[in-house]
Amino acid sequence: MKKTVDATGLACPLPVVETKKALKEMSRGELEVIVDNLVSLQNLEKMAKQLGLAHKLETISDNKHVIQIAVSEKQGEAASPSEETGTRSSGGAVVVLSSDRMGNGDDELGRVLMKSFVYALTEMDPLPAKVLLYNTGVKLSIQGADTLTDLQKLEGQGVEILNCGTCLDFFQLASELGVGSVTNMYEIVQSQMEAEVIIKP
Amino acid sequence: MYRLTEDLAIVQTLDFFPPMVDDPYIFGQIAAANALSDVYAMGAVPKTALNIVCFPEKMDIDILNQVLQGGSEKVVEAGAVLAGGHSIDDVDVKYGLSVTGIIDPKKIYTNVGCRPGDVLILTKPLGVGIVCSANRVGEASASAMEAAIRSMTTLNKYAAQVVRSFPVNSCTDVTGFGFLGHLHEMLGDSASAVIYSDQIPHIPEALHYAEEFLITGAAQRNRNFLEHYVQIEPQVPFGIEEVLFDPQTSGGLLVSLPGEAGREVLTELEKLGLPCGIVGEVVARSEKEIVVR
Description:
The complex is a heterodimer. Chain A is α/β, with parallel strands linked by helices. In chain A, 33% of the residues lie in helices and 23% in strands.
């Protein structure tokens, strides 16, 4: 469901009042609000942040600004205050893949489980905000890995895929990276500090 | 300020604006209290006032009479004389006053001059902008509007009389730039301030309306301007944060005076019956000009 509120010509707090009304009538989907000044846009942004709704801002001209707000059923709980919205609403979860196997015990079973885990991730709603890969986890995003397609699919839907650079160098796999970007320890730590939930299979 | 003799100077101010309440008589009172406020913030005594009126020719003239009646009563309460004024035809109603006051130039309060060791005292509750904004969209309760009107129609005369007997280092009245905006000006570039978010006198409903985002564009403009000077600690509730940026009409005096005197001044101010408080302290200049805890 997609809905548009044209709040041009309205002075604060009316754009917010109209937006709140529209949000109440929606259970999920995307709400687009058009305003004619930057300050109204900032007030709407503040509201979206406080409500924990994913949103995206766009300035079309000096007197046309648009905010797109993603509405999910669990609004205010799982939704992230992040400014990115994918093609699907993205949550505040960060998935940490620190190994190319899932769980301890049998290695072969662990690989099968991991492939299945990454596939299942692509079916989640909301999607995680980020997937962090380190240690043997980076082997999941190289050319020829059976998880590559699913990770690429996640990336295509706006999920950030971050691979540990040190680890790629260690395994001499840097040239074979098939998805996502290369990151450092600082970002690995910060992503986890800022995460609403961390999922580590 | 214009100095006439060694110990006598005149100060002049002017302020006028469109109505923020429906009742014309109350609007007149608020506009006058607001215009007189500047004079009190300088530590001066108002003596004469001139009306400034914009009014649509086609509108009921009785409304204008009520506005002027409200204004005139506040000028009388201030002990000043309404000496005339000027009106023009306009599409919207606007009203205000130009006020002249007198003062001993050696005793004038500056709006820049906070010193480390001072306490900051606010003499009226914050949040009237948010409450009026909620009222415009029919969301304000009668009691919230009553509290806002009571605060806006109260002359700063009485608070000024209280602080006059203490050694004031800096004083201003809180208006359009909001509490933090006016504080920023008072601190100049030689001091910083720590604000106690749990000690801010405010209209209780204002927090609730702020959390419903019934906030003004002017508050966001204040926020944009002050961003680099103010650090708000994460535990400060969103509602209070908005109240601190909220533009005030006929707001209270913000007074900076040595810490020892703080408690005594507050006791006297509390007797006036409006929410007031010691809202923070002035410290040596540090990296962030204002920290809200």
